Amino acid sequence: MSLHTKPSTGGRAPAIDGVRGLAALALLTVHVAMFSGLLGTKAFGEPRPPSNGVGAFFVSGMPSFIGVLFVLPAMYLYLPLAKSIIAGTPLPPQGRGFLRRLLRLLPGYYVMYLIVLLTLNREHIDGLWYVLRPILLLQVFAQDPAKPQLMNGMEITWTVPTMVIWYAALPLIAMAVRRFAMRGTTVEARARRLMLPVPVLIAAGVAWLFVVKGNGWDNRMVFWWPQGFAPTIGIGMALAIKLAVAQVNPGRTPSLLRRAAARPTLFWLAAVAVYLVNCARPFSVIGMDAIYSTSGLLVTYVMVALFGFFAVTPLIAPGGSGGARPIVALLTSRPVVHLGKVGFGIYLWHFAVMHFFFQPGAILGGNSRPIREFYGTVGFWRLELVTLSGAVLIATLSYHLVEQPALRWGEQFLRGWKGPAKERPSRARPALSPVPADGTAAAVTAAQARRDTVRANLVAVESALAAQVPAGAEFTGRTRRRFDAAGADLARLWEIFTAYSSTVDELDGPGDPDALLTGRSVRLGGAPKPLPERHITDNGETVYTLDEAVAEMERLFRKVVDLLAALEAVRAEVPDRLTALTADLGRAGDGADGTLRTELAAAKAQVHRLHLAVGTDPLVYWDGARVDATDVERLAADVADAVGRASGRAAEDQELAG
Q1: Which of 272, 399, 507, 574 is 20 to 30 Å from 310 by CA-CA measure?
Q2: Around Cβ 490, how many Cβ atoms within 10 Å?
Q3: CA-to-CA distance for 154 and 255, rounded, in angstroms?
Q4: 413 burial level (CB within 10 Å; 0-12, 13-18, 19+)
Q5: At what angle do helices 187-194 and 159-182 cross, to 10 degrees?
Q6: Is residue 371 within 8 Å of 48, Cβ to Cβ?
């Protein structure tokens, strides 16, 4: 099971929706447990113990699930950015993607805000700023950080500004690290360099925790501000980088993803272990609604990030084995998948549902009260049933009546939107005979598939070329010259591919795909030719059709592959022959003396020199079409003669001794 399993109607793999659904259910249950009194509290001065110790123990670990809700979006958002950097192509335009992400998040949020403003908060409105603050997504930042307080029914909406900020930040992080990452000469090297922000984000998140505690601020500030989830976002980015390597070069899937695909049960058992650690509340008090020590908060902070890592990794690993059938069956069951599809709405609405249940008179009559004032007035199971059923009902209505229509409208808008200048196609396209309309979609799909195949082969040949350099040494002579030429060819290959891939990307844009498919739409800049060779109209630009670009890439690719084939052929034949000669010389030395021993020593030195040549200049053994082992054959003849003479001398010595 992986992201490549059959998607649900929402576009994600069913198990991805499933784990999101379980996360939404877990967090709803935590909040129900807080206000029903199942979890104990110190919020009212005198500590109140949990109403049920066993239930409180198991609910105490459920905040771990919020890690899933941050790891998954970070991974999805960063994946195309990481993939483009690792593949050596331009970063994808971000304007359209950013608008799509906002349309997934904000319409449902604004509808919910308007309803709770008018039903649960209208008597508290004290000015325009009170109304504008949540609209501008400033409800967390514009208050006293030591005493965070959100509107009635909106207590959970701190996540919305946090996610919007990370939506904007992830592309900026990719842009900041791109130049450094691109200096890597292989896919793996670029991926390692791309990991640089991950430990920085983890360190920033931990530092923020100590800032909050050091200033005596409310514990909620650790999580409510965007930097609080920097470690979890970093884990999502790391998984995106690993998955990007697997997608760009399927033959080099990172070991982490291979292990997760082969043994997903181990990862989920680790997630269960993390959950149980959170249940036990190390350095804190089991069964309480908050964590009261810095060390206890740090443990929970780490557990949230680790739970997201262990729960998500088996779901994204390509080529999963399909193990852990009970877990897969649970995650892909229709009720759980539905919870995941409407999970954002469940998460968004469940506090409002509890308010409506606790104080229905406030909906029309006003005078709403903070939810903490209803602590312990209703039993856990009753409040759980009411909150879950109400939140699922409203979330389902929101999904079908608000969120999905907003996305459909957004797609229609984006199809007609020209976008920022740098995102618009700026190339003049000649009038050409169009591809038949019924074949355009298939041709676009085929072009995209071919582009992905070309990229995978370029990555493979780049890795293979880098692997040819001898460890701790460099090529010399003929091989050095050929290798440098191959490096230049490979650089040109990537240059052409970048322009080619950009054109293929435009096939899904607002322009004419038929003109891109059939016309000279791949443009590469460059310096004009020397004056004696230059045409009067030459500006240094090279223009190809898609097919011509592929043909030129194939020509350059073949030159690099031919070099690799020559190196492989030499290394497959010559070292074995030299090893055999070394063995022959060893046997001949047993019966040699005087002049013959000197000859054998000289032959050994020559074999050693030829061995060195195989390592540093193997193409001295290549004549352009086949292995040229003339020097080895000549030396083999000399060694055979010396061995024969040594054998004859040994036979004479035996006769004399007899």
Answers
A1: 399
A2: 20
A3: 42
A4: exposed
A5: 140
A6: no
3-state secondary structure of 41: strand
d(CA 426, CA 26): 49
* Angle (deg, nearest 10), helices 264-280 and 53-60: 130
What's the N-to-C CA distance of the chain in angstroms?
78
Contact 470, 615 (CB under 8 A): yes
The two structure tokens encoding residue 214? 């050091």
Q: Is the dihedral of CA 497, 502, 503, 507 positive or negative?
A: positive
CA-atom Rg of the chain in angstroms: 34
Rounded to 5 degrees, φ, ψ at 82 are: -65, -40
The answer to whether residues 592 and 650 touch, using CB atoms and an 8 Å cutoff, is no
**Residue 36 contacts by C-beta under 8 Å, 6 or more apart in sequence?**
51, 376, 378, 379, 380, 382, 383, 384
Residues 548 and 556: beta-carbon distance below 8 Å: no
3-state class of 658 per DSSP? coil
Number of residues written out for the chain? 658
Contact 226, 67 (CB under 8 A): no
- Taking CA atoms, 223 is separated from 23, 169, 228, 241, 309, in Å, by 16, 17, 5, 25, 18
For residues 650 and 593, give the distance between their C-alpha atoms in angstroms, rounded to a whole number: 10
Task: Report CA 222 to chain centroid distance, whole Å.
Answer: 26
Contact 399, 105 (CB under 8 A): no
> What value, to the nearest 5°, has the Cα angle with vertex 430 and ends 428 and 432?
150
Query: What does the alpha-carbon distance between residue 388 and residue 420 come to, in Å, rounded to a whole number?
Result: 43
Could you tell me the sign of the dihedral formed by the alpha carbons of 241, 244, 249, 251, in that order?
positive
* 409 or 644: which leads in pLDDT: 409
CB of 248 within 8 A of CB of 81?
no
Q: Give 412-457 pLDDT, tens digit per residue.
A: 776 665 555 444 443 433 333 344 444 677 888 888 888 888 888 8
| Cα 202 to Cα 199: distance, rounded to the nearest angstrom | 5
Measure the CA–CA gap between 79 and 73, rounded to whole angstroms: 10
Distance CA 488, CA 465 (A): 12
| Paired residues of 41 in beta bridges | 48
User: CA torsion sign, 627 to 628 to 629 to 633?
Assistant: positive
Angle at CA of residue 584, ends 581 and 585, nearest 5°:
90
**pLDDT (0 to 100) of residue 64:** 93
Q: pLDDT tens digits, residue range 116-174?
A: 999 999 988 988 999 999 999 988 886 665 566 788 999 999 899 999 999 999 999 99
CA distances, 115 to each of 119, 121, 123, 154, 364 (Å)? 6, 9, 14, 11, 12
> What's the farthest any 2 CA atoms get from each other in the chain?
127
504 with 447: CB under 8 angstroms? yes
